[in-house]
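Quick entry between incubations.
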Amino acid sequence: MYAAGIDVGSTQTKCIVLDENRNICGRGLRMTGADVMKASRQVFEQACELAGIETHEVGYTIGTGYGRFRVATGDDQITEISCHAKGAVHLFPKTRTILDIGGQDTKAIRTNERGEVVDFCMNDKCAAGTGRFLAAAAEVMGMDVSEIGPASLQSTQKLKITNVCTVFVESEILNQLGRGKKREDILAGVHRSIAGRSASLLRRVGLDEELTFTGGVAKNPGMLDAVRTRTKLQVNASEDSQFMGALGAALFALERELAGANRQEVQS
Amino acid sequence: MNRLQEILQSVREETESLDFPGPRKWKQANPDGRCVGFFPVYCPVEILDAAGVLPVALFGGGEQIEVELADARVQSFICSISRSTLELGLTDRLDFMDGMLFGSLCDVARNLSGVWARNFPDTYCDYLHFPQNLASDQAMDFYVHDLKRLAGDMAQLSGKSWSDEDLALSLDRYESLRARLRKLQQIRCQEPWRLSLEEFYCLLRAAGRRKVEAYIPVLDEVISILEKRDCRPVDGIRVVLEGSFCEQPSLELIRSLDQAHCFVVESDLARGMCWFQEPIQRSDDPWLDLARAYFKHAEASVVRHRDPQERSQRLLQRVQDSGAEGVIFCTAKFCEPAFYDFVLHKRVLEQADVPYIAVEFEEKMSNFESIRTQAETFSESILFFGEEAMA
Amino acid sequence: MSQSYLHQGSGQKLQRKLLGDWYQNLQEAPQRGEKVAYLFISGNIGELLQACGFHLVYPEVNALQCGIKKVAGPNILSAEDLGYSGDVCGYVKNDIGLLTGGNQMPQGTVLPPPDLLVCNYAGCATYLRWFEALAEFYQAEMVVVDVPYLRGTDGPTAEEKAYVERQLRELVTVCERITGQEFDPEAYRQAVARSAQTEDLWVDILQSAKRKPSPIDAYFEAVFFMAPIYVMRGTEACLDYYRAVKEEIDERVQRGIGPLAREEVRILMEGPPAWPHFRRFWEMFKKWGAVSVASTYSKVGGVWDLGFRHDPDRPFESMAEYMLGCYTNRNWGMRSDMLKSYAEEYEADALVIHSVKSCRSFSVGQADLREQFIREYDIPTLFIESDLADPRYFAEAQMKNRIDAFFEALKHRRVTAQV
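Done. Structure below.
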């Protein structure tokens, strides 16, 4: 028995396939692009291939993320907020608070021991302080997104970046470079100020141990460090952090499938 | 360091520091003393002073503060000063204060009084309603009654009983203070190079943080030194700055205006520090004197409705009286009152052929290039236009 | 609605007719040589101004009509062309845009200019700025009735009441000068008496939501049902209207009908609706079977359910008390207490806060409400943001995502709680 979760985010689409013992047996990942249906189908096929199974062997699929209603093979949809909570508590059972920095929004989620959402908060409409800001900062610096985190850890001088508005990222950074500031110090400042914004979001739901950091940005060591420093909490981050939404969706899918199978048994 | 530099350094520190050095020092020296903060714009400080309470003018957190706790309390479309003032409180930087006052200047400030009361349940917090229908027969009674209510609260806070005579003396003290501030304003207006805008502004700001009787001799000293200050005239345009009555632009923004040769010779910066246009007329009832002055002699301000045309006409008059050649609208992001006034002001200025520019600022702003460029262009265009007109 | 019934939609139909007649009558007022006063909804003094012979224009009602009819966007842009900032109230900008474009409402009415602007200032400094601008653009006379913001929890003081009452009496003199007509105290007294009767009916209608299932959506439906009591309170037509609505709601109760086929979640709503996207906004809640059982926005024109009534024996005094007691004139603690009592009396499962950028007098303090309800009262609370007038602030995908996540979690926890 297999179940899948497909998370269609604003930047990337991800898929997780689980076996009946809740082990991850396949992953799929690609850029979302313009064709959401195609992206969701491709990640699903990719994950099944890695799991060494045929697509029809997957009994239940749940779509999540912004494109959840357009998942080609989805049986149902659940928001990524519920899915991140589910996934995080599965991987780190002591998780009570979750920070997810995504492409266009940042979420702070409070959960209980069963992985149910108790409260959540998201940034307002603008993309200030989200993953989009980090990507824009990398672009201005002429670096790859994966490089900026490690680079920021080389910082020796504390520097304040006050404006985390994506529209002004270029002028803000060029202004700092113009003042002769070092690249790594500017980047460290960028990470710190995003961590600061995330911390105020986390405060709205309550900063309780343990904090699990999910989403693609959690793979950035600079961000992880900045969040740890800012919240003074034990921060969990998994290798699979960008798959957290897909994992949660797959867990929900498996529950549904198991419940369905039980019902059938009872009926027969 | 000479005496003037020493004074200027201390008032600059008072303006920039988030630690309130002046009020803290006063409280250390007066362990039984009480400090009550007030959110801009206006506060009847005489009533606090008469009760032996030190009024502490709050002007937000400026560019120094890092806001984290307050962001969880206010939405992104609220002005910086509300956010940073709350942050000052939530980070215990106001732990020396015994109370807080808010007034009816805008919807945000009004509601903030409730947010404050919830977050600081153990300290005194009050809201003052300043009358907005000055034409009503009952308005004066209402206001005097409210002033007396505040006075009762202050007496309770300070544990000091006091009389009308004490209030009358306090009125005198603040009158003397405002006379000095007006004198400084006059110096700045006549010879802007004698006293930079930054210096003038920091002296003005410190007036909201020092015990009034101690600050008057300091200002006297400043005035007498300034009169002999060695300086030479600099070319530039004379402008009126409008829109910064509540949230304050940073010192760097203020400096950049002088650097752009836009000499601000008249402004509404920190308006509450010098609220009355002329000396308070005195009778044997200091309560009525203070209330009447609010009704009749307060500077035209968007936080005090009198009649719809009053403020734009007064702006025009200030332009003319100060010999200004233009107006810079310098408005805090999300400051609704200033934005509403801008549209009405601009119509009147256009009719009177007074040039203007409008810039927007936030407390946490680090790049002033664009504002400086606009100010420089404004100054160039006026100087250029002036030459053309002569030719 | 799950099934059809006798009085179905009669409240809505009648409301449309009443407002249609109202606007028609307004348009013709100047031709008849009759005077027009502009005023605000919160703490409005319609009874008094009508007894002075004025026709009434409510710019806020015009603004919300423009919002629903999708012309607020262009109006707001024209106001911004005049120099209004992107960051000021969308209602004000809609009104200024409407004015510069010839003052024609989307349904065709050309609004008459004001002979008097009455800023019945209740809990909103933006009202003052709004009418100051109209005074300039129309070159019209403006009067303010200053209403002090309430402090503490004891309600208005004697001094506050005296101040407001005195201003109302002074206003009568101004009105007489402008209309050239003598104030008719008996007409005023009778209007106030009708208001009190109307208020009884309206409170009955709102409180019917205490039933399970609730026969009415006390937000998405109430915002339409409330229009007449705000706009034409004190008239016979208004009183008749609430009798009709009451009949409709009573029938729903008899037949066990609610606004949705199934009531799954009972919610409290705080904050004004997203007028420019009203339908889609409601759909997002309907989808989850969420029925509003009480709301604060349906009280902006008057908080009657906490006991206040206009009093024909004290027409001026009770009017002053009414103005002082307006929802947005209540301090944070009073607002919080009111919501708390609603949560108990209406047995609500959750609180939804719709925070709008335009109206700071509503929105500042809502983050603290949210925290208090979740942390201290353990009532699940959803916080969403958009605007009441400016269509640019409505991010549909984000809003839907938050609403879905909230109800999804609520439902899930209910299921596991039962296991």
